[in-house]
Amino acid sequence: MSPAPIVRFAPSPTGRIHIGNARTALLNWLFARRNGGVFVLRFDDTDFERSKTEYADSIEQDLAWLGVEPDLVRRQSERMAFYDDAAAKLKALGRLYPAWETPEELDRRRKRQQALGRPPVYDRAALRLTDDDRAALEAAGRKPHWRFRLDPGTVRWTDLVRGPSHIDCGSLSDPVLRRENGAYLYTLPSVVDDIELGVTHVIRGEDHVTNTAVQIQLFEALAGRAPEFGHHNLLTDAAGEGLSKRTGALSIASLREKGVEPLAVAALAVLVGSAEAVRPVASLDELAGLVDLGNLSRGAARFDEAELDALSARTLHAAPYAAVADRLAAIGVAGSNAEAFWQAVRGNVARLADAADWLGVVEGAVAPVVEDPAFLALAADRLPAGDWDRTTWAEWTNVLKAETGRKGRDLYHPLRLALTGRESGPELAALLPLIGRARATARLRAPSS
């Protein structure tokens, strides 16, 4: 039996996460959920200038709103000693070496290589320096950056999304793992943490494919083996433009503020660009059952807010009372009639907040629209006695039909306008018992304006 998977979502807290980031988080969390695994939220916060506590807090809030609950939370800023130990190990293995070129010198070399028709790959000139050369550079005040020496050959892996994959390491420059100022770039801390956490599957966007060969070699150098990798397709906006934390486009916070249903956001974020049809789901567990990394498309997928709005409404229309009871109570929908009220109005709300408008129609001061005062006065006189339920509407309107000969719109529309002040809305068979006799009578007998 395979061990339970351990996956991670590793955002940099340098801004608010957008729907593309949420896609990665959800794919990891749902994969763990489906397979009885562990989901780790790891903040890659080694960029001390741009990383902010408020962004980390907002990321946790956004994930919680989506229903994503981490089993562990880690922060790279608290783990620098582990990266120093790994760097020392790589130096001892001869895989991490100092290089003194400035960015300007490297740029000139790349341009020369390109002019000669050669790939702009670092030529490992630093490995040819003598002790005297290095001493002279240090005496001149130069500080080295540190590069990881790649083994030659092709790195192959079976991608969970893309299938058999490979990268020729001869086409890559030895990557810089540590800057001149001692700061680590993303690559080494990520691998060190994945090893320490026992990560078994790295599920991330396809923009990281080119990093995979380097990271597999790092895993093998430090731990002997690498986890499995899966690179999912990316999301764009409706116009096909890429998403960025810097622009705030389609941020989770903005969708939450708009009142979009979190289940709809999760369903569209995960199902768009896959073999599964985009549709409402009743729970994240149901969504987890639909996630198959092998069914994701290879092309970018467009996340359309208009499609999200429609899906959000459909999600609400199917939502049972228990799923929204707490949120309804927060906007004043509570008490013994709360469930019946929700059943009556849910098909007429696009946002859950719209339920408050219908609560006002049921219990508030409605301005009746009076088209035919004589008919409405008769209707008030014929309101059924006794307790009201969903059968009351049919009983009442059948009496009015028999007495007046009205039918269809001529019968029903004046009653709707008087009882609700609206041209359309929920079925009156469901609303009438909630409106109640006293309010119904008052609205039917309201003077014409």
From TrEMBL:
Its EC number is 6.1.1.17. InterPro entries: aa-tRNA-synth_I_cd-bd (IPR045462), aa-tRNA-synth_I_codon-bd_sub2 (IPR020751), aa-tRNA-synth_I_CS (IPR001412), aa_tRNA-synth_I_cd-bd_sf (IPR008925), Glu-tRNA-ligase_bac/mito (IPR004527), Glu/Gln-tRNA-synth (IPR000924), Glu/Gln-tRNA-synth_Ib_cat-dom (IPR020058), GluQ/Sye (IPR049940). One of its GO terms (molecular function) is tRNA binding. Keywords: Aminoacyl-tRNA synthetase, ATP-binding, Cytoplasm, Ligase, Nucleotide-binding, Protein biosynthesis. Monomer. Belongs to the class-I aminoacyl-tRNA synthetase family. Glutamate--tRNA ligase type 1 subfamily. PANTHER family: GLUTAMATE--TRNA LIGASE, GLUTAMATE--TRNA LIGASE, MITOCHONDRIAL-RELATED. This is Glutamate--tRNA ligase. The lineage of its organism: Bacteria, Pseudomonadati, Pseudomonadota, Alphaproteobacteria, Hyphomicrobiales.
